[in-house]
Q: What sequence folds into this?
């Protein structure tokens, strides 16, 4: 096994949990090559001076803050809860979930004001207390480390505050959502000194790779044919399109256009393009996009 080397960048990721597979997938999409992580404490990338350390996600904020590692990938929820002194660099667009307040389905509590003087179980006491303080609602917050969703049935609490993504755990435990506290997703964080130490150039390179994957995820590559006279209108529909690749077709007055379209406006844009006469529209995923 290779040894940890001080000149390499060090990135801590969750060893075993909900974020692990998608984090590994994200790193591989960024072009990083490393051995399978199972049973390992760390992997050394073959094609980039980066060591990936597999740790409990609870430990990631401390490792990054202390400088044991330069970087970490974890849920934004952990940052909101623990407020470590680190720099948030990128939102990674996976691991989406929300911190919510829920009560038993049959509870008489109808809104957050009904929680006055009630007991609330959560693994996120700081986020919870902050929320109730802001809303001026006195409650008792009890910290529970696991299986928060069963505490109302056990009579420990009248409400819970927990993370949810699909809502299936809530449904399984006959709980209903009262309110959302915040949304979360995976984020890349760095030690505060990371940009001023000797590794800053490596760090910049790695971030460019990550941004390439994120931009690619947000865009689709589109090819289409259209009458040449429609080009100004097409440019109006795709406003961020500065200089599309245009090829003249053998049919007189027709051109082929190649460009990128933002994923969130995708269908809307395609409908508009079809309306003004674009045909033969081909859409391709983008692997990487360096802007
Ligand atoms: P876990 O593996 O359960 O410790 O969760 C790791 C991270 O996955 C959490 O800190 C959240 O950022 C994220 N996550 C995404 N969806 C959920 C969910 N439904 N429940 C808990 N965590 C979630």
A:
């Amino acid at each position: 096994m290779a040894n940890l080397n001080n000149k390499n960048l060090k990135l801590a990721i969750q060893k075993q949990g909900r974020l692990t597979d998608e984090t590994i997938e994200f790193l591989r999409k960024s072009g990083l090559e490393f051995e399978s992580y199972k049973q390992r404490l760390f992997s050394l990338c073959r094609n980039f001076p980066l060591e990936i350390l597999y740790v409990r996600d609870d430990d990631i904020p401390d490792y990054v803050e202390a400088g044991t590692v330069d970087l970490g990938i974890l849920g934004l929820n952990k940052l909101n809860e623990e407020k470590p002194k680190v720099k948030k660099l990128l939102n990674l667009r996976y691991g989406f979930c929300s911190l919510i307040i829920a009560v038993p389905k049959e509870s008489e509590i109808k809104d957050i004001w009904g929680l006055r003087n009630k007991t609330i179980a959560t693994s996120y006491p700081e986020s919870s207390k902050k929320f109730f303080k802001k809303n001026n609602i006195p409650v008792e917050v009890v910290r529970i480390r696991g299986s928060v969703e069963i505490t109302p049935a056990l009579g420990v609490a009248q409400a819970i505050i927990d993370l949810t993504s699909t809502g299936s755990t809530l449904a399984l435990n006959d709980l209903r959502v009262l309110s959302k506290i915040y949304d979360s997703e995976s984020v890349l964080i760095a030690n505060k000194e990371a940009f001023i130490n000797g590794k800053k150039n490596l760090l910049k390179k790695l971030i460019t790779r990550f941004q390439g994957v994120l931009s690619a995820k947000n865009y689709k590559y589109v090819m289409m044919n259209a009458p040449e006279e429609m080009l100004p209108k097409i440019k109006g529909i795709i406003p961020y399109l500065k200089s599309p690749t245009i090829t003249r077709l053998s049919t007189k007055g027709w051109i082929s256009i190649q460009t990128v379209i933002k994923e969130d406006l995708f269908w809307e844009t395609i409908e508009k393009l079809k309306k003004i006469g674009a045909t033969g529209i081909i859409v391709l995923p983008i692997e990487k996009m360096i802007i």
